[in-house]
Design a protein that fits this description.
heterodimer; A: mainly alpha; 12 helices; 2 strands; B: mainly alpha
Chain lengths: 288, 340
């Protein structure tokens, strides 16, 4: 039972980490390698607003999310827009920005002592005889809520439909008056906010460390590749696969192997089924 | 800016002397010969003389060796990315493999550096190629992602299995003995690597490499096995990386997890972008600029990674041709504004 419950929690955690990455890639075909950095940055901003500025916790959260969204949009508007369509430059530039943020934080912000965000609700409860803290339940709730909200947003609102249009066929969307660059900015902002939400619900479980950035990036990339880049159903399914595989490894082998599982999953997927579980056939040509 | 270029364009023409040196007239007059040889001689002799010039600053002599190690990696990256079309973000993996292999050969079998460096270079390169073999059908973004994972995975596995000294690394590796051997071995390797690769690229093999980069389907259609060529490309790049790693181990007398670190993956990329992709010499130039900056920033810890990351971003976005391509253009061409 413990494996099932923690497996589900871990899987939802992975989904949360990957949602932002898959959204940005799905809409603007931009592999946002600064995703992990934005994740850590939001945690740090929330910590700053909470402890240095002294805002209320909910306000600090909203402030941190807003700032991250703006930073994500600015990153696209000032830098990435210039190298749109050059995949290699996109990877290198976004990775470099991410590195600059993470290593800059390691040097200037996150050093000396531990940085923690308080959990939303303290304490823990029994669930089928397994003790689970409330924060982990919040993670699950937040994950499910976000998936639902995103689905509604994409399927029902005009902006969401525009994003979907760009994702499906950029040229056709352009002829219908949807501005591709503006949509890419929206998707970057939204993706950054999603990374931020993941950070804010997950960081209370541990402390804010720079390494989390690299870990989140690896996990997000793993989930997206296994699921098929840009495919949401695939990403969710893949996070369950990897999530359970990780929990099984932790309980039967050793904790060290947690990241190894994700990396092996990527390598096996790319070699055996390069388009991922749900990737579209069209993309196969680009990959292999 | 838009205002200034509205009714005029910049026209570029090859300089007369450049056109003459392309043909047999290159040996017609000392001016042509100088024009042709000067940049090459400045590069070769400059690199060879560098340790002598810096012999008054012993600390910076050590930096020369580090520059050369990064230069080897950068040449490998440049070759693989701009001539074979495989962007490898995992330079750290090659260094790590070379370093561990040299250290193990030295410690377990007691072999001297004269033996361990060549073995680590060539066998290490083969090992890297073998490990990368399953990923070679991939290209573009997908190869980049997988290659980024390799050094991370290797580090984690060594940590998890606690093999090869685990997190402590392997201590007590023999040094080169004479520091001049170390310096000139590395400088010589860089020069040989640049020379050989530049020759290779104008041979038939180079043509196929370029074909694999530009349109691999067409190469396939010509009944050429692209995986073989990609493997060859990875072998060349990883051999250079392993050579760097093996020398690094013997210089620091230590092999450890930090040799799989980010530095070895990111600086060569930054150097290639700054120096100018595709020129091979540009990446050496980039290392000559970036590595000393990194040494000066050593006191600031990880800030230096942030600094190159920013330099890299700035270059890739605003000056993506790099210094070497810019310099070559100025050296070979006249530029003038023409009215239109």
């Amino acid at each position: 039972m413990e494996i099932v419950i923690y497996g589900i929690i871990n899987s939802i955690t992975l989904t949360l980490m990957a949602l932002g990455f898959t959204l940005v890639y799905g809409v603007s075909r931009l592999p946002n390698f600064a995703h992990g950095a934005l994740y850590v940055l939001t945690g740090y901003l929330a910590w700053l607003l909470l402890n240095r500025v002294g805002l209320y916790y909910p306000l600090a959260i909203i402030g941190a999310l807003a700032l991250t969204g703006i930073i994500g949009a600015a990153m696209y508007y000032f830098v990435l827009v210039r190298i749109r369509g050059m995949p290699i430059s996109e990877i290198i530039a976004s990775y470099a920005i991410g590195l600059a943020i993470l290593e800059g934080l390691r040097w200037g912000g996150l050093k000396g002592g531990t940085f923690t965000l308080p959990p939303f609700i303290e304490g823990s409860t029994q669930l089928f005889g397994v003790s689970v803290d409330y924060q982990r339940l919040i993670v699950v709730a937040a994950g499910l809520l976000l998936i639902g909200a995103l689905w509604l947003f994409v399927a029902k609102t005009k902006l969401g439909l525009a994003l979907k249009g760009i994702a499906q066929d950029e040229r056709a969307a352009l002829t219908l008056g949807i501005d591709s660059d503006r949509m890419a900015i929206v998707s970057m902002a939204l993706g950054s906010v999603l990374a931020g939400i993941a950070a804010l619900v997950l960081f209370p479980l541990g402390s804010i460390v720079v390494e989390a950035g690299y870990q989140v990036l690896i996990m997000a990339v793993a989930v997206c590749i296994v699921g098929g880049l840009g495919s949401w159903n695939g990403a969710i399914l893949a996070s369950f696969l990897i999530g359970f595989a990780q929990i099984l490894t932790v309980s039967f082998i050793a904790t060290h192997y947690q990241v190894v599982v994700a990396i092996v999953a990527i390598i096996v997927t790319l070699i055996s089924r390069p388009s991922g579980l749900f990737g579209r056939q069209k993309e196969l040509e680009e990959r292999v | 800016m838009a205002e200034a270029t509205k009714d005029r364009r910049k026209e570029r023409l090859d300089r007369g002397i450049k056109v003459r040196t392309d043909s047999v007239y290159a040996i017609s007059h000392w001016q042509e010969m100088t024009y042709m040889l000067a940049p090459r001689l400045v590069f070769i002799l400059g690199l060879l003389a560098l340790p002598l010039i810096l012999s008054f600053f012993p600390y910076w002599q050590r930096v020369i060796s580090i520059v050369c190690i990064y230069a080897l990696l950068a040449i490998g990256f440049d070759f693989l990315a701009n001539h074979v079309g495989l962007v490898s973000l995992g330079g750290g993996f090659y260094v790590g493999v070379g370093a561990y292999m040299a250290a193990l050969l030295n410690l377990k079998f007691g072999l001297p550096p004269v033996v361990t460096v060549p073995i680590a270079t060539f066998v290490g390169g083969a090992l890297c190629t073998l490990l990368f073999l399953p990923c070679l059908p991939l290209r573009g973004v997908y190869f980049a992602i997988v290659s980024l994972m390799f050094p991370l995975l290797a580090g984690r596995i060594i940590e998890a299995l606690d093999i090869f000294g685990g997190t402590d690394g392997l201590l007590g590796v023999e040094s080169f003995g004479n520091p001049w051997i170390e310096r000139y071995l590395l400088i010589g390797s860089v020069l040989v690597a640049v020379f050989v690769l530049r020759r290779l690229l104008i041979e038939d093999v180079g043509l196929v490499f370029r074909g694999v980069k530009d349109n691999d389907q067409a190469v396939k259609a010509s009944a050429i096995n692209i995986t073989v060529y990609k493997a060859l490309g990875v072998y060349i790049a990883s051999t250079l990386g392993c050579l760097g790693g093996a020398c690094l181990t013997h210089i620091y007398m230590w092999a450890g997890l930090s040799q799989f670190a980010l530095d070895y993956s990111i600086i060569p990329i930054a150097a290639t972008v700054v120096g100018g992709g595709g020129t091979l010499i540009g990446s050496v130039l980039g290392c000559l600029i970036l590595v000393p900056i990194s040494e000066m920033l050593r006191d600031f810890g990880t800030l230096r990674i942030a600094v190159y990351a920013l330099i890299l971003t700035a270059f890739i976005v605003y000056k993506s041709e790099g210094l070497m391509n810019y310099g070559t253009r100025k050296y070979e061409q006249l530029e003038r504004w023409v009215r239109i």
